[in-house]
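[Automated response] Your request has been received and processed.

Submitted sequence:
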Amino acid sequence: MKPTGRLPKTGASPFSRFEWLLAGRYLRSRKREAGVSVIAGFSFVGIMLGVAALIIVMSVMNGFRTELLTRILGVNGHVIVMPIDQPLTDYDAVANRIDQVPGVEFSMPLVQGQILAQGMGTASTGALVKGVPQAALEKLAPVASNVQQGTLENFDSAGGVAIGARLAERLGLRIGDNITLISPDGDVTPLGTTPRVKAYPVEAIFEIGLSEYDAGFIYMPLSEAQLFFNSEGQAQSVEVFVDNPDDVARLQPAIEAAAERPVYSVTWQSQNQSFFSALQVERNVMFIILTLIVLVAALNIVSGLFMLVKGKGRDIAILRTMGATRGSIMRIFFITGASIGVSGTIAGFVLGLLFCLNIESIRGFFSWLSGVDIFNSEIYFLSELPAEIQFSEVVLVVAMAVGLSFLATILPSWQASRLDPVEALRYE
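Generated structure:
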């Protein structure tokens, strides 16, 4: 009697429990396969460290950029408007008109100059004096929100200055002490220009968190700065702060038009372009370099699987004679290699996140252990080591590591599936 139809297919379904069981056995070490286990261990550690290093480095670079951008743009204007043909004597009217431009947060007339600052003793250092109105200074969040001592109330009428915390520490100053400012552009006499020397009481001490600014910025009432720098009745520029700093190129023409007088302006992007471009280039290069760690670990998976396939030739031949398909053999070795890559990626992901979330504590521990300040704020500008985890970048790193691990398993798994059972058992 002839069969009326095809016989049902037999055998294990793709990625069945049978295939996972065999892959798990191949991952466990035996004395004859100690070399394979060692290579698998190094592959796991390499992928784990590579993924963790990528997450940590990218997060720190993101933190650096965000912190520097926030602090630098929070203190300095996003657009700086300067006069062309004549002194800026109508700075109040210009600032008021610019404030009406949609997208502008506020504008600030400014008089500034380099001076030599001296404390109560003999210590002295260079600093930058910025003369600003009290109303504008109170809108500068990095300064107004980080006053450590004193107050900015009655700043315009008190006749004192606000200085950075590191400058106060360097000169040994506290609230109420006098700081002596020396400017080379003083009074003109028959004997020449004499330096201008004047002492001001310290009304407030702030800490922005950017060491360069905390050690070199002095804020003074605008009217007092005009007298000190021989700029009575005029301002040097108007600094404009906008709602979205990345939108300054679009707002720049409207800001210049609102001045209603001949001016030219520069944006924060043009002033700091080389600095932030260097940060971006460094970030991209570090990503490429650290990706090589993951790639080398993936190549270790390739070599380990090739050794495993060579050592398991007899087992593969027996499985084939018992009915295992080529696809099943390929999946078994694919699961074996991919398990190393996926487990290493997960371990690296967890390690990287834990490191980033506790990076300041870890830095403090290693600084204490080595006796060396690992993150010197005088060199790196920031007082704390920043880390900002971006979900999209973490997903990219994890996907890249898993993808490389999968690709590394394809060739040795394919070779295992192509093994001829007759040739493998001929000399057994």
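Summary generated for your ticket: The chain has two domains: 17-68+275-425, 86-261. Confidence is low (pLDDT under 50) at residues 4-10.
If you did not submit this request, please reply to this message.
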